[in-house]
Amino acid sequence: MGAISRAQLADMPFRLFETLTGVFDARAQRMHSLPLAGFEADTPLREWLLRGVNHVNWRRACHTGQPLRLGIHPDDLSLRLGHRVIPMAEAVSASLTYPDMARGYPAVTASG
């Protein structure tokens, strides 16, 4: 998000800001650390890195009971990890909305 302070974020018209490491609640000044799986792999190196990161974050979600965020972009289905998007989305047993985050998310577990 660049060089912006948490105080500056609190002055914005938005409450929640999603980052690679989680969701920041600017009103509560609290970071909700949440694992993320991504699929934007357009090169062999990015595919290799994302496979590793996705595996670690999937296991983290399963082990801790934290929700796993799926970062899906418009062209992901046609990229190198496109075949993993649907199976991972189908493995999700519950969803978490931004209003849930604002209230303090309930326990949601990934299966696997």
Could you explain the architecture of this structure?
- By secondary structure, this protein is of the alpha+beta class.
- It has one domain (6-103).
- The protein contains four helices and five strands.
- It has helices spanning 6-10, 44-64, 82-90, 98-103, and strands spanning 16-18, 22-25, 30-33, 36-38, 69-71.
- The strands form two sheets. Strands 1-2-3 form a three-stranded antiparallel beta sheet. A two-stranded parallel sheet has the order 4-5.
- Strand 1 (16-18) and strand 2 form a beta hairpin.
- It is globular, with a radius of gyration of 15 Å.
Quick description:
The chain has 112 residues and is α+β, with helices and mostly antiparallel strands.
Task: Using brief descriptors, characterize the structure shown.
single chain; 112 residues; alpha+beta; three-stranded antiparallel sheet; two-stranded parallel ribbon; 37% helix; disordered C terminus
